[in-house]
Amino acid sequence: MRRVILLACAALGAAGSLPAQSVTARVGGEPTAVGYYQTVTVPITVDMSASGGLLLGSYTARLTWNPSVLSLNAYTCCGQTDSTMQGNFPAPAINTDSAYSFGILKFSAVSPTGVGGLVTIAQLRFTNYDTIPTPLQLSFSEMSAAGTFTNLLPILTVQNATFCQARGRWGDLDGDGNANSRDALFILTKVVGLPVNPLIADTSLADVDADGRTTSRDALVILSYAVGIPVPGQRVLLPVADAACATGSARQVAVLPNAVELVVNQVFRFTVQATDSAGRAVSVSGATWRSSDFSIAAVEADGTVTPRAAGTATITAEIGPGVTASATVTVIARRPNWYVDIAATGRPVQNGSATYPYEHPLSAFPWVGEGDTVRVASGTYYFDDDGELNAGVVLLGGTPGDTTTRPVFRNAQGYYSGLWLRGGQRTVVRNVVFHNFSEGIELDGVRNLAVEDTKFLTGQYGDGIYHCGAEMDTVRIDRSVFLGDSATRGGTAVYYSGCPNISAHVTIFRDSRVQFMDDGLYLYGADSLLVLRSQFLDVYDNGIYLSQEYNERPALVVSQSQFLRGYYQAIEVNYMRRVVVDSSTISSQTYYPAIDVYDADTILVRGTSFPGDSVSGSPYSCYSGQTVYVYRARRTELRDNVLTNAYCTGIQVEHADRVGRVVLSHNRIDGAAAYGIRASAPVIALDHNVVRNIGTPVNFAAVSTGVYIHSYYGVDSLTSLGDSVINIDYIGFNVDSARVARIDSLYVNGTGLDSTAFDAHGVVLSKGRLDITHSRVINAGWDGITATGPRAVLRSRGNVVRGSRGGGLGTWPWYWVGPGPDSLFSVRDTVQRAIGSSGIWAGLTSYALIDSAVIDTVPAYDGVYLESVGRALVRDSRVRAGRYGIVVSPGVGRVDLLRDSVLESGSGDGINITLSDASVSDSAIIRGTTVEGVAGFAGVYFQGAGRVLIDSSRFSNAVDGIEFSAANLGAVSARITRSRISSNRVYGVGLGAPGSQVSLSLWKNNIFANGVAGVVNYAATPPTVDADSNYWGDFNGPRCQPVIGCSGLSITGDSIVTQNVVFAPWDSVLNPAAPLAPPGFVASAGGVPSAVASSSFATERPAPRTAMRGARPDALRPGVAASPVVSPPPRRYGPALPAAAPIAQGATPEQQARIERNWQRRVEQLARRAEVEARQRAERENVAPQSPRN
């Protein structure tokens, strides 16, 4: 085992030593000069030819010299790269802090892909101030291979050089600066053996062909050069270094690359590489460049080629007589594909082809043409300028379909535009990352843009895409991400400034995400915007803002998208022709609407969820905070939406121009501080909406209303079908004013949940006409259904009102001030357990009809109450009352009670009628009516003045059957016919004092079995009561008390106990015309048909609010605490900008001007937005009513 280990270690040691491999670094060139102040070029080379296939990846080098002899020519310092020193390796980063005083240069470079063969790592240039020799000492502290990261120092050999004065120039034997026939003659003289005076000619400079000998061939080369014949490969007039410092003159020269393909106007620079006869790199300076066809390609003195037209040209470089090389330039009209690869960094040959890619996109952008494709390899590309493009291109990053290979375009300072699109028909950007630009993409002339699979990291202030330029047709963004700074949330994902014209006709935003931005899409001057399957998360200001800028009226469609955790409006649009929001999720904001529409032709919101976080602590602070707010529109539709925990109001729609139609259908609103639905428009249609839990969990405010239809913008027609309103702090369904309001199958359960809400009605109409049918109003905080405004008309049919803290239904003026409602029509309504007021009532109303009603107010209040009604008709109704069955108070011109049944009353009368004290024109007609079981007083009680007719009615089981008041009785004309007055505990008919103005007649009545007397007349000045032709319970007539002189007429008949009652003749038998038995009490008469009734209708009043909080965690606000009662904070438009435009280090004047322009643009943008917000807010607050009361 030990031997195996030793052998393995030996093998590893042998492999690590790499004995067959070597790397040679040299100080090359001709470190010499003829005279003073000459430029001396010294190439530093690394020969990797014997490295075994390794490629040079990195190095760190140090070169020293005598600074009094040589001075380094450098254009940068302090770790920056110097492109003038670049060879065929990336330009070195240099440190010159010791170069000028101590003659020490430190330099380093890296190539991730590596370079092999003979590598020129640097071209150093010096100026000589002296001619004395000075060593050039090279050393390396690090050298590694690319890819394998092998340490190359163990196999590195360094060859140094010495600078010294040149002895002269090859071929210039006499030192006159030329190579001509005189020099050739000296060579021939030496060749034939004749002496040459060394003071006149230096024959050591004769070997121009570098063959190591002086021959007639050298003379021929010089003569050929002198007469202008090309002498390729010869070193005529090149410097001749002293033997102490020479490395050999250039023997061969090459132009790199030897062939290149360029497009018209694509500038390209050739490089020259020279070697001596030993194959060592030598310096090249003063090359002369020529083009074979300047109409195809022109060449400048430094080797820069400018293609002019399609074709082929030869570019030649000459560094000395006969030392030339050439390369072929092929000029094409267009390159369809351009290549950019960060691995090409430092390579001397870059032309954007697949073979010689550019190292940076900015190198390719100036040359691309319309329709070209720029393919950018993965990597990080730092931008120090705008990515200006004047043609429409396709920019493809990394591997198609693989977002992990996206190249990153980065601007460290955040001043520039990643792409500045200044022209072209169509640009496509795919699979790229833009990091920390002022604008990732700036649109300033391109006609169409498509962005796909792209990521924008916008930093603190940057915009993802910005437009301020020419009008565009289409902007399409797919599968892209706009990500801001999570701490500051500044900048805008897509911003159209609207300058100077329409920005884009169509903008499409699909399958994309915006997060941690100040705004998502903020567009002025956009005609149409489609947002599909996208997310807007943690956006501080607007998710989408779209507004008219010129004469366009934009259109917006949002579908299957999410807006979550925003602060201001998720969607805010102004002056629109169409708005559609479909199948999306939008979290309701705190103080501001989730959807805010200011002026639109058509609005449709459907299938969308609006989850909210909290409700306001007080609806009085609700200047905004609507989940959906529409102000000014022609048609608004909201269908199948779910809204929960709206901060103030769920849905608020106000057609301020008094035109158009509002349709709200199948929406569910659960939780709001002020209103569930608030609307005002000429036509409003509600259909199967559910509104519940409206109010604040901490304090009462007489504002919180389930549905509020207000009159400020005029309501001509309101319809409600199958809506439900449940658990409301104040009023359930409030119609402030409507010319015609039709409500069918409405369900209201639980209003006035704050116990102090005196007027917390179930349904209330202030002005106009209300037709309500087949509805249920249960557990109202005060009245169930009421109309209160001037000339209001209430038409109620088939409704059920149960458990109201006030009354059931009726009409009355607000606080009995001003003109009252016009009329009440109640048909087949049912009122049960109204505990605070009358079952059905009418006050200060012109006409009241109560038909086929079923009223049960036991044990508390009156069944029917009429006051100051021009005419009232109560017919075919059944009443059980806790106090009075039917009350007719002063001011009723005429009341007809037909076929009614008052089958139970509590502490009052069955029917109590007070006619006017002064007028004899008031009248009361009671026909076919039954009053049975009055525990308090009379079956019918009259006071006041007027006319009374009672016919075919029944009065029994009361204290008195019929009583005319003993006080407050005026001129009364009363006639009672064909009625049954029996089994009352005291009197059948009583006339109280003073009753001298009463004209009372009784005819064909059955008066019997009353406890004390059938008829009494206690008038002070008794009028005669005409009571003939009545049946008194006995064949022999009534019993008559002796005091009136008529005793002995009957034994069992009712008594006559007072004078002035004329009872003869009487009927001997029971009058068949009088009713015999009362009809039964049917509790379910009228009401909602069973086909309409909901199985979910509550049968009991909801628990008080305090009990609900303890017993039902989801009762009012599911798991949510109320927000404090505060006013909305001032709106913030992104993070604060610096007070002045930043100064970019190293920026050109043009670049600094663009930076200042961008800063000024943002200042104007924020000011403009603040002005628009203030104007709209002022208009809304000045005109919109804040309370449902009139």
- In DSSP terms (H or I, runs of 4 or more residues), the helix count works out at 7
- Taking the alpha carbons of the first and last residues, their distance comes to 105 Å
Helix content: under 10%
Mean pLDDT: 83
- Give the strand content: 35-45%
Q: Main β-sheet: number of strands, strand sense, barrel status? A: 44 strands, parallel
Number of DSSP strand runs: 96
Overall shape: it is rod-shaped
Cα gyration radius (Å): 53 Å
Structural class: mainly beta
Low-confidence stretches: 1-19, 1077-1129, 1183-1190
Task: Describe this entry's structure for a reader.
The protein is mostly beta strands and 1190 residues long. The chain contains seven helices and 96 strands. The chain has a 44-stranded parallel beta sheet that branches.
Helices, strands, pairings?
Blueprint: H1 2-17, E1 23-27, E2 32-33, E3 39-47, E4 56-64, E5 70-72, E6 93-95, H2 99-102, E7 104-115, E8 118-128, E9 134-145, E10 156-159, E11 161-165, E12 168-169, H3 181-191, H4 216-226, E13 239-240, E14 250-256, E15 259-263, E16 268-269, E17 271-276, E18 281-282, E19 288-291, E20 297-299, E21 304-307, E22 311-320, E23 323-332, E24 337-340, H5 361-364, E25 373-376, E26 380-382, E27 388-389, E28 394-397, E29 408-410, E30 417-421, E31 426-430, E32 433-435, E33 439-443, E34 448-452, E35 455-459, E36 463-467, E37 472-478, E38 481-484, E39 492-496, E40 504-510, E41 513-515, E42 519-524, E43 526-532, E44 535-537, E45 544-547, E46 555-559, E47 562-564, E48 571-582, E49 585-586, E50 595-606, E51 609-611, E52 626-639, E53 642-646, E54 649-654, E55 661-665, E56 668-672, E57 675-680, E58 683-687, E59 690-694, E60 705-709, E61 717-721, E62 724-728, E63 733-735, E64 738-744, E65 747-749, E66 763-765, E67 768-773, E68 776-778, E69 785-787, E70 793-797, E71 800-802, E72 809-811, E73 823-827, E74 830-832, E75 840-851, ...
Parallel strand pairs: 1-10, 2-11, 15-23, 24-25, 25-28, 26-29, 27-30, 28-31, 29-32, 30-33, 31-34, 32-35, 33-36, 34-37, 35-38, 36-39, 37-40, 38-41, 39-42, 40-43, 41-44, 42-45, 43-46, 44-47, 45-48, 46-48, 47-49, 48-50, 50-52, 51-53, 52-54, 52-55, 53-56, 54-57, 55-58, 56-59, 57-60, 58-61, 59-62, 60-63, ...
Antiparallel strand pairs: 1-3, 3-8, 4-7, 4-9, 5-8, 6-7, 9-11, 12-13, 14-17, 16-21, 17-18, 19-22, 20-21, 22-23
Helix pairs in contact: 3-4
